[in-house]
Amino acid sequence: MKYRRLGKTNLHVSVVGIGTWQYGGEWGKDFTQEEVDQILDKAQETGINFIDTAECYGDHLSERFIGDYLSRRKREDWIVATKFGHHFHGYLERSRHWSPDEVLQQLDDSLKSLNTEYIDLYQAHSCSDEEFNNDELWTMLDKQVQAGKIRHLGVSLKTNNESYQTERATEYNVKALQVVYNRLDKAPEATIFPSAEKQDLGILARVPLASGFLSGKYKPGASFGKNDVRSRNEDAEIQQTLRLVEEIAKTEVPESVPMAAWALAWCLQHPAVTTVIPGCKNPDQVVANAKAADLVSTDHPQNI
């Protein structure tokens, strides 16, 4: 495993992390605590030390799985990121909650769910510019940093067009951005990455396997169940994506390299990117994803 400094923080995160939206039950599978334990134990074996979750992956369900795990392990071995701004109300149903009092309650609920006294990276989750541009909210969050409940603040951008929030990140003491970035979506390279590099912000690349399409598991003709978030897309769009991925596999991926590892390493070669956070449904996927670190050059500005 390789490690990189997360922006202006003192956190050294593994270049491959663990995304945990799946644990909330919206990816066609319900997890047990034992399954989560096995995934995270395997992650630690491979050198992974970074977990990303959110209050609305289930009603703090993903956080509770992680918290139960952390209660039986060394908390200091892990860098834990979570998010705020929503309440979960069922499959793909959320309500928005952005007042300082509501966010403070979310923070306390997340700390309780995660069985921890502090959150390493606390991220505004897909906020609008109006929700972001709230001095009272950021003043409250800064007080929680001073109180030790939060180590660092971040923003998980809703889209790759959030130039307003990106440009003002340092003004609000934000030290990391989370963006959608993968071989099928290079949009952050245009404006977000240059601004992040200028401000020395960490970049968390979410959906690095394009919701599993770049994992190499799915071929044209594949379909997804009704309780899988990928089923939101029209079948014609899904099939078009699968055909494009098939072409990429033939023309860009070396024959001896698994496509998932190649796709993650593709993200990590950009000098702005600190870590990728693919989801994992089992320990074997953890091992496969961790192999991306072997394909990453050590010549990177954030490498430790």
Automatic annotation (TrEMBL):
> Which CDD domains does this one have?
AKR_AKR11C1 (cd19086)
InterPro entries, alphabetized: AKR_Detox_Biosynth, NAD(P)_OxRdtase_dom_sf, NADP_OxRdtase_dom
Keywords attached to this entry = Oxidoreductase
Q: Does the keyword Oxidoreductase apply?
A: yes
Identify the residues that the record assigns to the NADP-dependent oxidoreductase domain, covering every copy. 16-296
Descriptive protein name? Predicted oxidoreductase
Q: Name one Pfam family in it.
A: Aldo_ket_red
An example Gene Ontology cellular component term from the record?
cytosol
The terms under GO molecular function for this entry are: oxidoreductase activity
